[in-house]
Amino acid sequence: MTILSIIYITLAACVALGFSYFQYYVKSKRNGKELLILFILRALSVFTLLFLLINPKIKSVFVEREKPDLVLTSDNSESISHLNQENNLAEIASFFNQDEEINERFDVQNISFGSEISTKDSADFSAKQTNIFKALDAIKSSFKKKQNATILMTDGNQTLGRDFQYFSALKNQKIFPVILGDTTKFPDLSISKLNVNRYAFLENKFPVEVFVNYSGSKNVASRFIISTNGKTVFSEDVNFSEENRSVRIEANLPASQLGTQTYSAEILPLENEKNTVNNQNNFAVEVIDERTSVLILSSIAHPDLGALKKSIETNKQRKVAVKYTSENNVKLNQYQLVIFYQPNNNFNNWFELIDEANLNYFIITGTKTNWSAVQKSLPFLSKTGSNTEQDFYAEINPNFNQFQFEDIGFLDLPPLQDKFGDLKIDTDFETLLYQNIEGVSTKDPLLMIAKNNDRSSAVLFGENIWRWRTKIFVENQSFEKFDNFIGGLIQNLSSKKKKERLNIEYESFFYSNEIVKFDAQFFDENYQFDPNANLQIELKNDSLNSALDSRFLLRNNFYQVSFNDLQPGEYRFIVSEENSGIKKSGKFSVISFNVEEQFSSANFSKLKNLADKNESQVYFPDQLENLKSELLNDNRFSIIRKESTKSQPIIEWYILLFILVGLLAGEWFYRKYKGLI
After folding, report:
1. What are all long-range contacts of 98-101, with beta carbons under 8 Å and residues at least 24 apart?
2. Which stretches are transmembrane (predicted)?
C-alpha cells in the first residue's frame, strides 16, 4: 500500500468521524447511550464507503517451490520379456517412485515406450517394435521448460527409427541409461536382414537377399538353408571369423506354383548357441500369372504400332505381335487382348472372330478409319460428319476410378488427329480422357473404357500417340511415365474380372509385426460409389478357434478396416454389406516373425555411447543407490523457490460491500426501534 493511499485512508477516517459527530452530537439535541451507538454505526459506514472509493491495492507475496522432473522411461517391448527382465524393470521403477528423498526432490513422471509413447502406469511388454529415439525426442519436447533427469530403463535393442546413440539432449536434460539384460556377448549367428519382393511371376525365378551376422571371436562354419513344405530349395555353406562377421547370400528361387508360397530361411546354429530364435526367418511370396499376349491388328503401317509394342513390352510378362489384316495365319486363342488400329472394311471378319472368341479389344481410330465399317461391326459406336481432320488435346477425367494412374501431363501433350464429327455411343462407358479442342473442353471422350459383364473394351479417338511417348522422353529422359500409363490400361483391358458392386483389396499374406489392412469399395446399382454403405468384416481362424468382427470406416472414396496383433496362422474372412446383403469372402496368412526376439543380450555399446554423448554414465540394476546419490548431489536438480507478488484492489473484496450494507441496515433498524424515524 502506498503512502498516498495511507493519507487518503487517514483523511477518510477523519471525515467519517467528523461527519458522524456533526450528525449526532452537534445537530441532535438528544444525548445518551443510543447516540453513541448511532455515532459508531454512521462513522463505520461512512468510512467503509470512503475506503471503497479510495480503492487501495493490497499486495500479497506467494512462495512456490518448483521441483525438477524425474522421467522414468520404461521399455515396454517384447524384448524385455524375452530377456527375462520384467522384474528388474518393475523393481527399478518402484525404487524411484517410492523413495521419499527422491519424491521430496523431484516430480516423478512415468512413461513407457515401444513404437509409440504411453503414459500407462504399468508395462505389459507387448510392443512389437522399439523406438528409443522417438521416446527421448518426445521427452525433449515435453519437458524443455524445466530441469529434468531421464532414467532410461531399456536393453538398448532398437528395431525402429533413428539411431538413438547419437541423440543429443537439451542443456536442461540429463539422461541416465539403466541397462536391462546380460551384456555378455555369446557366440551367436543371426539373420539380420532378409529382402524379397512380395510378388513373383509364374515360371520365373525371384531373388532372395539375406544378410547373416556373427558375433564371436573364433572361426566358425555353418550352413544356410531355405526350405518350403519341408523340402530344401537352396543351401550354401558359410564361414565366419572375428574379421569376417557378416555374409551376404543371394538365392534365386523358382516360382513354379500359383498362390502364396511360404518359405523358411535358417542359418544352422552353432554348438551351445544361446539364442537360436534369430537363426530363422519366415517369409512368403505370392506367385501370380501376369503373362499377357497382345495382338495389334492393322491394315496400314504407322509409327504408333512400334510405339505401342515397345511400351507394352517394357513389362517382361507381356508379349506383343503386330499383324496385318491380310495375314491368314493368326491364332486368336493365343491372345488375351486385340488392338484394332484404324479399322476399315478389311476388319469386318476380325470383329466377328473376336466376338466368337469373347476377347477383350482396344480400338484406336484416326484419319484412315472407315467409320461406316466401324458402325457395321460395332452398332453402338458411330461418328457422323465430314472428312475434315481435327486436332484433339487430352484432358484428364478426375472422377475416373476403374484403375489408378498418374497424370502424365496430358493437357500439355501433342494433340492426336482424327476426323471431325459428332460421336454417338450407345453403351455404358467411363471416360478416362476428355477431348479438348483449342483449349475448350468438349466432355466428349478421347479415351473411353466400357465393361460389359466379364468383357472389356476401350476406344482411343485419335492417332499419333507415338508423339506422346516422344514428348515424355524429351521432358524426363525416360519413357517410364508413358509406359506405366499404357501398362495400366493394358492390364485393365486384358483382365477378365467382372464388374462387381463390392471390391476388396488386401494382401494375401502379412507378417505378424504388420498391421492387417483391408480397403473396400461399394457401388450402388448404377455402379456409382456409395458413401452410405454399411460394410462389416468377420475374421475366423479355425486352428486357433478364434473369431473377430469389425466395421469398415469411410476414407474419402473408399472404406478401410485394420487389425493389430493377429496371431500367426491361416485366416478366412467374409465382408458383407448389411443393406443389400452382398457378401464376399477370401483368405490370407499371417506369417510368424518377431523382431524383438532376435536379440540375445543388451546393447551395452550403444547405451554407453548415448551416455558419453550426453556427459552421463550407464548404470545397472544393482547400482540404483549410486544413481540416487548422483541425482541428489547434482546441483542442476535443485528445488527452485519462486516468489510472486499479486496486487488486488480492495473493491474486489466483496465482503466489504456486505459490511457496508449491514452497517447502514443496522443503523436504520436501530433508529426505527428507538422511534427516531
Report:
1. 99/628, 101/628, 101/632
2. 6-26, 35-54, 651-670
Strand, helix or coil for residue 119: coil
- Looking at this protein, which amino acid is placed at residue 74? S
Distances (CA, A) of 308 to 295, 313, 414, 643: 11, 8, 16, 81
Name the grid cell of 24: 449526532
- Beta-bridge partners for 386: none
Longest dimension (CA), the chain: 143
Q: Please give the full DSSP string across 262-324, using - where no structure is assigned.
A: EEEEEEPPPTT-S--GGGEEEEEEEEE---EEEEEEESS--HHHHHHHHHHTTSTTEEEEEEE
Class of CATH domain 292-494: alpha beta
Instruction: Give ranges for CATH 3.40.50.410 in the chain.
Output: 68-184+601-638
Separation between Cα atoms, residue 617 and residue 523, nearest integer Å:
62
Question: Other CB atoms closer than 10 Å to residue 257's CB: what's the count?
Answer: 11
> How is domain 68-184+601-638 classified at the architecture level of CATH?
3-Layer(aba) Sandwich (3.40)
The H or E element that residue 395 is part of is: strand 389-396
With beta carbons less than 8 A apart as the criterion, state whether 34 and 24 touch: no
Domain 188-288 has CATH 2.60.40.10: yes
Please state which architecture CATH assigns to domain 502-595. Answer: Sandwich (2.60)
Q: How far apart are CA 63 and CA 520, in angstroms?
A: 61
pLDDT of 417-451, one tens digit each? 999 888 888 888 889 999 998 888 888 999 999 87
Statement: the pTM of the whole predicted model exceeds 0.70: no
